TrEMBL record:
<protein>
    <recommendedName>
        <fullName>MalT-like TPR region domain-containing protein</fullName>
    </recommendedName>
</protein>
<dbReference type="Pfam" id="PF13424">
    <property type="entry name" value="TPR_12"/>
</dbReference>
<keyword id="KW-0677">Repeat</keyword>
<feature type="region of interest" description="Disordered">
    <location>
        <begin position="71"/>
        <end position="123"/>
    </location>
</feature>
<feature type="compositionally biased region" description="Polar residues">
    <location>
        <begin position="101"/>
        <end position="110"/>
    </location>
</feature>
<feature type="compositionally biased region" description="Polar residues">
    <location>
        <begin position="71"/>
        <end position="93"/>
    </location>
</feature>
<keyword id="KW-0802">TPR repeat</keyword>
<dbReference type="InterPro" id="IPR011990">
    <property type="entry name" value="TPR-like_helical_dom_sf"/>
</dbReference>
<dbReference type="InterPro" id="IPR019734">
    <property type="entry name" value="TPR_rpt"/>
</dbReference>
Length: 456
């Protein structure tokens, strides 16, 4: 096979006028018999994976359990941290485009031991940490901030629709107030409120599987406000990368992760670099480049282990990512080993009802199901359903789909039919009937009739 090597993917994007055309160019090369090797000239000297098929179909046409292995576990667990973030009045000013200038994070001095340049674990989507009591009180007492807090309560309760309505109402109302406002401190407050509401709205859209809408919210943040605070900008890049990931746009996801990685490398924030490497490794695995995926993930794990205690949740989350990589590689025994390590550690930290535990149990169920052990899979899925309790969200619907498939394998047709019906009833609350997830479960429901008839 003839080789066609590209050394700079960014240059290719410029030549082909965009990442989509660059991807089509490479796909055409592959179809013509070329072997693609793409290299990013960065500090870590990774190689981008070849453009092969994005992901193997890991399931048979009949059995399609849903593997909730996206790296979005932090979507709900950091709500308290995000909701309490504040901003400095002096860090925002008006321009042709509303501007968020740099905070103290923009040009931190790099410490030789890298201790002072690391980001605090409390800064998830940072809205500035400069202390200004007058500004903080103004932000806290604003009625729109209180509406955001109400929206967060809806999010915690799993009421995504009301949460989304509340966040979008806050953004629209904040925009209207900005048009009429002349007080600089109040303008600063309204800008922060608009960014917060858009970020939370994007998060809800993502949880509902509406990834295009989630990206639109983040694009509004970038297009309406000139964000010079590099940490906030990085968090938006990461959120956009996750949206692309969920939408199977793997190269675009890598592009946004890389933008954030470059920013963090410039200030040598080792912990953020390590966490990004772990996220990037998962995308490589989805592109079937398992060797590089494991290499990158282990590099991230090595940095985390050198900086954090062995009981830190980031270590256990990295074990989960390694479990996902080995699962995608169909190395199920290794996958289960890492998933067990992740689950044991996270249970010690959060208890058995945390969302991180649920996603691990689900993936363990999927692996057991794929290995032909539908009995163990059924027990794991039933455990998850009990953990969800009375809440009705998309995650529960996906698990009910998996449970129904396990029931089918055990010839429990009535239970399978009931689980499918519960799953579709929940999805109807959030998704239209043309959504791919809804269509997939509807297709699986037809298996009940076929299986029942085959045993008559």
């Amino acid at each position: 096979m003839e080789e066609f090597e590209i050394l700079d993917f960014n240059e290719l994007q410029k030549e082909e006028k965009g990442i989509d055309k660059a991807a089509k160019f490479l796909q055409k090369k592959i179809q013509n018999g070329f072997k693609i090797s793409i290299v990013i000239k960065k500090q870590h000297n990774f190689a981008l994976p070849p453009l092969q098929q994005k992901k193997n179909d890991l399931f048979s046409k009949q059995h399609q359990p849903m593997d909730i292995i996206s790296q979005s576990s932090e979507q709900t667990e950091n709500i308290d941290k995000q909701g309490s973030s504040t901003s400095s009045h002096s860090s925002i000013k008006m321009n042709k485009k509303l501007t968020v200038p740099p905070t103290q994070h923009e040009t931190p001095q790099q410490d030789q031991d890298e201790q002072k340049s690391e980001k605090s674990e409390d800064d998830q989507i940072s809205f500035y940490q400069n202390k200004n009591n007058s500004f903080e009180h103004c932000l806290k007492d604003n009625l729109l901030t209180q509406k955001i807090q109400t929206g967060l309560l809806f999010m915690r309760d799993g009421n995504s629709k009301l949460a989304l309505e509340k966040m979008m109402d806050v953004y629209k109302e904040g925009n209207e107030q900005l048009k009429q406002c002349s007080d600089q401190q109040q303008i600063s407050v309204l800008i922060i409120i608009c960014i917060q509401s858009l970020c939370y709205a994007s998060q809800v859209f993502r949880e509902l599987g509406q990834f295009s809408e989630a990206q639109k919210c983040l694009d509004k943040c970038l297009n309406q406000f000139e964000i010079n605070d590099f940490d906030l900008l990085c968090q938006i890049y990461i959120a956009k990368a996750q949206c692309c990931l969920f939408n199977n746009q793997y190269l675009q996801s890598l592009d946004y992760y890389t933008k954030a990685l470059i920013q963090y490398e410039q200030v040598n924030w080792k912990l953020e670099i390590a966490k990004l490497l772990v996220k990037i490794s998962f995308v490589y695995a989805l592109l079937n480049d398992f060797a590089d995926a494991k290499k990158i993930c282990y590099e991230g794990l090595s940095i985390l282990q050198g900086k954090l205690s062995n009981s830190d949740p980031n270590i256990y989350e990295t074990y989960y990512t390694l479990g996902c990589i080995y699962y995608l590689e169909k190395e199920y025994d290794f996958a289960l080993e890492y998933l067990d390590q992740s689950k044991e550690g996270l249970i010690k930290l959060y208890g058995e009802k945390h969302i991180s535990i649920i996603k691990i149990l689900n993936l363990q169920g999927v692996i057991n199901h794929l290995q032909g052990n539908s009995s163990n899979a059924m027990e794991l899925y039933e455990q998850i359903v009990c953990l969800y309790g009375d809440s009705q969200n998309v995650g529960l619907a996906l698990v009910l789909n998996n449970l129904a498939l396990a029931y089918l394998d055990r010839m429990k047709f009535k239970s399978a039919k009931l689980s499918f019906e519960k799953a579709t009833a929940i999805l109807k609350l959030y998704l239209n009937e043309q959504h791919p997830t809804f269509q997939r479960i509807e297709k699986n429901k037809k298996l009940v009739v076929a299986a029942t008839l085959s045993y008559i």
